[in-house]
Amino acid sequence: MNEHRETGAGDTVVLKLGGSLITEKDRPETLDGESLADACDAVAAALSEGTVDGLVVVHGGGSFGHHHASEHGVSTTTGTGDVGAVMDVHGAMTTLNQLVLARLHERDVPAVPVHPLSLAARPDGVNGELDLPIGSTATLLEEGFVPVLHGDGVATADAGVTVVSGDEIVVELATALDARRVGVCSTVPGVLDGDGEVIRRIDTVEAVADALDGSDATDVSGGMAAKVRELLALDAPASVFGADGLVAFLRGEEPGTRIG
Amino acid sequence: MNEHRETGAGDTVVLKLGGSLITEKDRPETLDGESLADACDAVAAALSEGTVDGLVVVHGGGSFGHHHASEHGVSTTTGTGDVGAVMDVHGAMTTLNQLVLARLHERDVPAVPVHPLSLAARPDGVNGELDLPIGSTATLLEEGFVPVLHGDGVATADAGVTVVSGDEIVVELATALDARRVGVCSTVPGVLDGDGEVIRRIDTVEAVADALDGSDATDVSGGMAAKVRELLALDAPASVFGADGLVAFLRGEEPGTRIG
């Protein structure tokens, strides 16, 4: 038996492992095995050393989910009623989830899959709130397991099934679980300013705009600005960092950019 | 796209396919391929003929789930904190679920997996209520999909992960979805009296006791009596029938034993 955690709310760490980190983003359904192994080593060490007590992992889709989603024209705002498309996206994501779980199990991390398609809904349509009940995740955590969620399909009123991103799940979980800290680990070392330097700290929405306005890559900064705004809205402090920062984050340090 | 269902609550049919029906119960992880194919034929025909508008399928564990659960000493009241045991039970059930889904997809049934381990919890322990949020299932139904649930592991306070039976899920879903009808299809032709005859109708708890008291097989009748009591407590009428009754049930008839 795992030791039951008798700790209250507020001890949980929510860790996002970006799809770009754990997969080869340009080759369909290809794992970045080395990066994933390194990330799983860091998670296993943190749990066995006790620097983290209560961990939820959320991973992105990378070349597994995104490939199929774009092939079928499915996104967070455009759904599909074609069950073949739903199963392609969900199947690829559960395959990736199984690969992540297997590497965690090899390192004695008591990881348990939690599939958003089984769990979540957008009952008010593509522009409505995400309904993500956390009973299963919270109870798994309390019982000493490590729930592992992922980007997935999600049933959406009047749209069939749309995509729910790992980032959206991170924000929902952090709020609902009253997380202590949130970590977003990807292939960039943090939120970058117009000169490509890591911004050490962002604590207001204005600072986001100022810092990111100078960036060349409009697309990326647009996406990053939205992500930063969502993380800023959380009660819990969040850190955005690269693979090099994961061990430090799990030790309680603040690598990359601290948000909020 | 599937046609969106614009019908309100009360149209949904919840169909349980017993583990004993779709697997060879005495041989570990062995499908009863013929029975499963017949059941999937009946489901596909009912949907294409429009005799059912809104269907949720729940399947039992049969020789997939039960084998691993008993090997690890896990039951509805005895949990495990061993992630290997959890993954053995859940893995076997998701394998069976994939086999069921594949056969439904072959017949153009828009079946989508909903895994209870991702969804459900017993937050008050083994004797507490099952928390089974139905947002995903309800929205999938409204969007024209056929959610397929199954017996599974479930996170349970102070007990790790216990088993949730397909029967328990049927009762919860039927209540929460305000189902119109519930069908329990297994290898017995209905609820049998002491002489082995099918009881055509049971509508009071007293009738259950009277009818089943005479039965020789104490174990079976004990289990059946509990099942009948749970079905009696539902608002929706339930039918308990064998493989021969499935087509009739899906046409709106009442084969086997009608309960409630």
UniProtKB/TrEMBL annotation, chains A, B:
In this chain's numbering, which residues are marked as the site (Transition state stabilizer)? K25
User: Which SUPFAM superfamilies does this entry report, sorted A to Z?
Assistant: Carbamate kinase-like
The enzyme's E.C. designation: 2.7.4.26
Catalyzes what? Answer: isopentenyl phosphate + ATP = isopentenyl diphosphate + ADP
What is the protein name for this chain? Isopentenyl phosphate kinase
Q: What does this protein do?
A: Catalyzes the phosphorylation of isopentenyl phosphate (IP) to isopentenyl diphosphate (IPP). Functions in an alternate mevalonate (MVA) pathway leading to IPP, a key precursor for the biosynthesis of isoprenoid compounds such as archaeal membrane lipids.
Every copy of the Aspartate/glutamate/uridylate kinase domain together lies at 12-233
**UniProt entry keywords in alphabetical sequence:** ATP-binding, Isoprene biosynthesis, Kinase, Nucleotide-binding, Transferase
User: What is stated as this protein's family in its record?
Assistant: Belongs to the isopentenyl phosphate kinase family.
Looking at the keywords, is Hydrolase present? no
Query: Which positions in this protein are listed as binding substrate?
Result: G61, H66, G166
Residue positions binding ATP: K16, L17, G18, G19, S20, G62, G223, K227
Origin species, per record, is Halorubrum tibetense
Enzyme group, top EC level? transferase
Describe its partners and assembly state: Homodimer.
Q: InterPro entries recorded for this chain?
A: AceGlu_kinase-like_sf, Asp/Glu/Uridylate_kinase, Fosfomycin_R_FomA-type
A Pfam family annotated for this chain is AA_kinase
